[in-house]
């Protein structure tokens, strides 16, 4: 009996332990955060002694000297320790006694280190955050132990030259947050104190905006004058907080301690050029007060420190250099605000200098900087230029600031989003880092250049009268009318509405159709979302984070939105619409711009699995969709670069749809058709489009669920297994494969359908493949798929999915090519976007995007996606992380891409009805060998391209007009 009770107790302990070790939901984490905020010890338990031999003693029992002594600090509550195991979340981190490799957290893309920085930010803006009361828990953290640990930490990791090269930006940022040299992150403290004051004192908001957006030393006087002016209205606490801000600002703007720097420089041993530059800068700074010269010198030194730091073999010297580098960057950020440019030439020179500083501070990689450096040098040396060349300079300049800002986001976004789930304030961390970087000054200078370019090009944006409109540029032409929704948080949390116009920080990869889109991070030009927007004539524009913030106050308003062919953008209140603009949205017959899915030649009698080698492009829409038909064509043209494949044709799907649908007294097919017949009847009876759409979505959701449970025909399963054996030379369950939905609604002349339905990655197990067949069939009836095609199709009930099954290729990198220039270049050029791993670029990753011409290739954007997936042989996907220090595509890849495009144009383009037809090609490289996965026609919206209104608002630009670059701007 006692034994039974013991076993029961033991089982209960294990069961409770397992429950506690499960990952906590965001709501549960939020609850813990709130508990810590109200606890006088926060996440800490009690003060302990941590001994050198690994033992832990009570606070009144110090570690003996004979075991090496120890250090004293707080231990953590069980809940905080559990959170580390279940959610990999680290709150109230105490560095002393933490193992270097565990804190660095390399396997998780340095997440623990980054969380330490995010925690510091939250503490600075939210009164200690989880340590709101715990920050007064005496003895919890010993500053001298933290600083000693920090110094040892940096000297240890700086031995790793690969880490230093690949994570230069992250390392310099960590130096600002981890105590090691008696320093603090004064820039962040200044911004957080001003933010808190603005929340407490609304009239302080204008000064807070100035400090955040255009910080200068004269802001100290603004704060002092504010205190004098408001003295009678301020409480003692408010006055104290304002005085604290002044102290922080005075420390931030205090001159460098050159005596200390000179002493450290004198002890350095390494690259003599860097050492001499530092010595000269110290002398120069005290003799010459020209902001321009100081910024130019500081930028040069920043770049040279980064270039030559490995010449300094001592990790102590490397640490000194990086600390000096951060101090010089701070000087540069202050002085660049004092460097005022008057002419086009001076402005271009300043942008060139700040671009060099972006390289030196780690925001650009060396290979990226090489792509843009000559463009500035060439421009600055000439006396005259043309409107076209000045526009090219602006585009290059915009690229630099976008690449810099996106580099910051790429480093921190994953952890910031993780924290935002339970602490929305964390979303401001990335913006704070941008504001404390070269990107802020770059953006301001480029706005000035943009205003000048708009003037000489006659390109004028008209966006709600906000400032800095030159940073806004159109991507896809079109016009829309609807409610404006400004989303500055995670876009995946938003349930979008078809009738709304959305402004996102970055677009979600599975975006449902909307009326219009503006994004800070445009993803890439050839993602499925971008192609669908272009295809449907959905106006799409890019803007800056500052523009998004300025437009936040218009959230919820009814607006008109238009993008012209030249990329100028209109966004105005509905009350300001012209008569011509109002007429664009008068009620029209639904069929005017609708198309019909052709089913006249469909072959539903073929109910056997087909070898992909047996089909070609002429079978598209008959036996199968265009993916399989075109890939069969490619298999004949490129036999060594296209995998084998098998096809589950339309007929197999229709045969299963003729089965009785549970609880409906009819077949699946009858249910589908009856649903659309009922929708048409509702239309006749005057029921609103919104109510009809809701009915269709609910009915199709029911069908989707039913198809997931459909009983697959036994003869079909045997046929599928036999074809695996004959085509893939192995049994089902032993070959990892892709299952790709391939409908007859894709790649029509007026509609692409790109990415609407399901692709299953690298499935190996037999039961998962069989279930996957049903999942792919059902995906044609998801809300997202239905809503996109509903915009265009007259007979959406006649959508038939086939399935293309191909063996997985574990590519090193993959992407998309459009056989024409998009937004840049000509119809003879190629637009290519690539990401590391499988599935690159199509889901909107921030991909390496290039314009490839006959003789050159131009970097439009570098990759800014830190994570990627590979396809292991055991099936599924495996996540990896990458740095950005190397480009993805090499010269041989680009040569292969040109040859591929040439063959596609000659052999497939020649068969197209339109000889100028461009193509959308998906492919990848494995060990530098090109593998082809898909080809489809590239479809653009002809109505948007030919609209009289869009033509009317498109400015006429005199590209060859001469501009004197010494004239004032």
UniProtKB/TrEMBL annotation:
Family matches, as PANTHER family: PHOSPHOENOLPYRUVATE SYNTHASE
SUPFAM superfamilies noted in UniProt: Glutathione synthetase ATP-binding domain-like (SSF56059)
Pathway: Carbohydrate biosynthesis; gluconeogenesis
Protein name: Phosphoenolpyruvate synthase
Cofactor requirements of the protein: Mg(2+)
E.C. code: 2.7.9.2
A Pfam short name: PPDK_N
Role, per record: Catalyzes the phosphorylation of pyruvate to phosphoenolpyruvate.
Domain of life: Bacteria
Signal peptide limits: none
Root EC class: transferase
Family: Belongs to the PEP-utilizing enzyme family.
Catalyses which reaction(s): pyruvate + ATP + H2O = phosphoenolpyruvate + AMP + phosphate + 2 H(+)
Record-annotated Pyruvate phosphate dikinase AMP/ATP-binding domain positions: 624-948
GO molecular function, one term: metal ion binding
Keywords: ATP-binding, Kinase, Magnesium, Metal-binding, Nucleotide-binding, Pyruvate, Transferase
């Amino acid at each position: 009996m006692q034994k039974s009770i013991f076993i029961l107790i033991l089982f209960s302990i294990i069961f409770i332990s397992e429950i506690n070790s499960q990952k906590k939901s965001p709501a549960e984490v939020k609850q813990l955060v709130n508990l810590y905020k109200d606890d006088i010890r926060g996440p800490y338990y009690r003060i302990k002694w941590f001994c050198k031999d690994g033992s832990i003693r009570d606070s009144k029992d110090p570690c003996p000297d004979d075991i090496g002594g120890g250090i004293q600090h707080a231990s953590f509550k069980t809940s905080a320790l559990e959170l580390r195991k279940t959610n990999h979340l680290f709150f109230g981190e105490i560095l002393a006694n933490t193992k270097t490799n565990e804190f660095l957290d390399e396997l998780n893309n340095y997440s623990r280190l980054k969380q330490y920085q995010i925690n510091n930010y939250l503490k600075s803006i939210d009164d200690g955050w989880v340590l709101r009361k715990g920050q007064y828990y005496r003895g919890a953290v010993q500053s001298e132990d933290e600083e000693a640990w920090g110094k040892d930490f940096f000297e240890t990791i700086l031995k790793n030259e690969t880490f230093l090269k690949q994570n230069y930006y992250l390392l310099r940022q960590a130096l600002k947050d981890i105590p090691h040299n008696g320093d603090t992150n004064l820039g962040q403290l200044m911004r957080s104190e001003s933010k808190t004051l603005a929340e407490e004192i609304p009239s302080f908001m204008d000064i807070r905006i100035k400090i955040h957006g255009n910080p200068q030393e004269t802001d100290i006087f603004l704060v002092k004058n504010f205190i004098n002016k408001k003295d009678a209205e301020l409480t003692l606490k408010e006055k104290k907080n304002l005085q604290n801000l002044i102290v922080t600002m005075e420390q931030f703007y205090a001159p460098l301690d050159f005596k200390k720097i000179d002493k450290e420089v004198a002890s350095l041993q390494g690259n003599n050029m860097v050492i001499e530059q530092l010595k000269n800068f110290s002398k120069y700074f005290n003799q010459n007060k020209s902001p321009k010269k100081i910024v130019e010198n500081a930028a040069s030194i920043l770049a040279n420190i980064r270039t030559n730091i490995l010449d300094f073999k001592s990790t102590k010297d490397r640490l000194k250099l990086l600390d000096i580098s951060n101090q010089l960057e701070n000087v540069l950020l202050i002085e660049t605000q004092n460097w005022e440019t008057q002419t086009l030439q001076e402005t271009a020179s300043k942008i060139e200098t700040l671009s060099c500083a972006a390289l030196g501070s780690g925001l650009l990689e060396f290979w990226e900087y090489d792509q843009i450096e000559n463009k500035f040098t060439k421009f600055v040396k000439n006396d005259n230029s043309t409107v076209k060349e000045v526009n090219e300079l602006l585009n290059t300049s915009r690229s630099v600031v976008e690449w810099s800002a996106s580099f910051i986001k790429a480093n921190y976004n994953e952890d910031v989003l993780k924290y935002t789930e339970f602490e929305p304030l964390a979303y401001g961390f990335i913006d704070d880092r941008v504001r404390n970087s070269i990107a802020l000054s770059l953006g301001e200078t480029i706005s000035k250049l943009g205003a000048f370019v708009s003037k000489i090009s006659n390109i004028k944006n008209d966006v709600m009268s906000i400032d800095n409109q030159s940073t806004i540029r159109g991507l896809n032409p079109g016009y829309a009318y609807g409610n404006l929704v400004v989303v500055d948080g995670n876009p995946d949390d938003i349930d979008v509405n078809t009738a709304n116009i959305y402004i996102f920080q970055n677009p979600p990869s599975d975006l449902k159709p909307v009326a219009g889109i503006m994004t800070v991070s445009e993803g890439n030009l050839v993602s499925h979302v971008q192609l669908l927007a272009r295809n449907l004539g959905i106006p799409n524009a890019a803007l800056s984070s500052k523009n998004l913030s300025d437009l936040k106050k218009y959230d919820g308003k009814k607006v008109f939105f238009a993008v012209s062919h030249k990329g100028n953008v209109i966004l105005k209140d509905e009350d300001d619409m012209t008569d011509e603009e109002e007429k664009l949205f008068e009620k029209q017959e639904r069929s005017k711009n609708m198309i019909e899915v052709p089913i006249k030649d469909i072959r539903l009698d073929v109910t056997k699995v087909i070898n992909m080698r047996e089909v070609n492009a002429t079978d598209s829409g008959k036996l199968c969709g265009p993916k399989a038909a075109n890939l069969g064509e490619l298999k004949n043209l490129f036999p060594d670069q296209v995998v084998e494949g098998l096809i589950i044709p339309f007929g197999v799907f229709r045969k299963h749809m003729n089965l009785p649908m549970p609880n409906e007294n009819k077949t699946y097919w009858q249910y589908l058709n009856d649903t659309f017949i009922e929708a048409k009847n509702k239309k006749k009876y005057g029921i609103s489009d919104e109510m009809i759409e809701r009915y269709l979505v609910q009915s199709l959701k029911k069908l989707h669920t039913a198809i997931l449970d459909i009983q697959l025909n036994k003869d079909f399963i045997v046929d599928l297994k036999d074809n695996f054996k004959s085509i893939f030379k192995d049994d089902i369950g032993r070959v990892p494969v892709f299952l790709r939905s391939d409908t007859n609604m894709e790649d029509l002349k007026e509609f692409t359908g790109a990415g609407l339905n399901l692709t299953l990655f690298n499935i190996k197990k037999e039961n998962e493949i069989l279930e996957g067949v049903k999942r792919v069939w059902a995906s044609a009836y998801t809300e997202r798929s239905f809503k996109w095609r509903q915009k265009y199709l007259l007979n959406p009930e006649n959508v038939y999915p086939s399935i293309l099954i191909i063996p997985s290729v574990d590519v090193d990198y993959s992407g998309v090519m459009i056989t024409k220039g998009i937004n840049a270049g000509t119809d003879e050029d190629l637009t290519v976007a690539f990401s590391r791993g499988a599935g690159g670029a199509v889901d909107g990753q921030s991909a390496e995007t290039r314009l490839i011409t006959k003789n050159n290739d131009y970097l439009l954007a570098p990759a800014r996606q830190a994570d990627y997936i590979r396809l292991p042989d055991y099936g599924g996907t495996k996540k990896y992380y990458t740095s950005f220090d190397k480009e993805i595509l090499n010269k041989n890849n680009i040569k292969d891409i040109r040859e591929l495009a040439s063959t596609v144009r000659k052999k497939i383009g020649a068969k197209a009805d339109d000889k100028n037809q461009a193509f959308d090609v998906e492919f990848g490289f494995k060990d530098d060998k090109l593998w082809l996965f898909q080809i489809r026609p590239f479809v653009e919206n002809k109505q948007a391209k030919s609209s009289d209104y869009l033509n009317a608002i498109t400015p006429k630009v005199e590209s060859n007009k001469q501009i004197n670059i010494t004239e004032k701007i």
